[in-house]
Write the structure tokens for this entry.
Amino acid sequence: MSEFFFKLDSEERREVIQRAAVQSGMAEDVLEKDIWLVWTLQRLFAIPNVPQMAFKGGTALSKVFGAIDRFSEDVDVSVDYRQLMPELYDANLASMSKGARKKASDNLRGLLTKLSHDVLVPHIEVAADTLMGKGACQIEVDASGEKIRLHYPSVAAKGGYLKDEVLIELGGRNPTEPNQTRVLTTEIARILPVFEWPTAEVAVLNPTRTFWEKATLIHIECSRTEPKFGDRIFRHWYDLSKLAEHEIGAEALVNITLLENVVKHKEAFYAYSKVGYDGCLSGALRLVPGKDLLDVLAGDYRGMIEQRMFSGMPPDFALIIDRIKRLETEINRAVTAFNNRAAI
């Protein structure tokens, strides 16, 4: 049965994790968290009668598409905004007034809050209590419902970078199409296949859309006059550098129409007062950080390496930034060519 690991006592679970760590060279807490991550996805996508959801982000790029080599620790999930507000199916977001877009955005936030607090969290809580015993796992959700944390009873040796929790980051203002259904497995299943481990059948967002979502996110961060220094943010630059070398990146660069779609959607629901997305569609997209942000990103990357977040030898920081510089040029060249063709 796929829940055998969770039914072991803490010492037995520790021994299994240690054995897999020795055989693979992976960190104990990375292996352990991956088990809980897959179990969490399994439970989340098994909840009945909820709006369409799509798994996306770095964890999807790693576990589903094999496009990046790092362990991705959180679960990024979009809840389809049109299924939360069916009246938006036929809406032209670009033609809506600023006030109408804000009202729709606020309504979507409220609907996601209700879905998260009233449906998703109770289902996950019951599943966790059934699995490990009441109270063994702690479920924490913020007021917005956008961040759900499953704190699990860890038995693994700690490395310092990872937390003993699976963070589900929900977004209720995005589309979930195109997507495809895939089955996720754990890293430890590859190392110790003699045992049965959790699997999760999920809808996964098209990775070319993820490429453009990450590129536009980085553009905003690089365009701020006062950069926001959140931790664990270098993953976006690393992921994009890897996608640039993958067929996903090649497909994205010839699909500027999808970039336009992503930008229009972000302008409708993710607008900022001091920075904007104009450069993304004019050949002036920014991916290269300024010095202050660059220093923060370098420290963040060192933490990822120390935690053994990579399955192979991680590339030098300078090489990643160099690839990002070249990608910035490639994207802006592709956008300019697209605009020139459209003007003919």
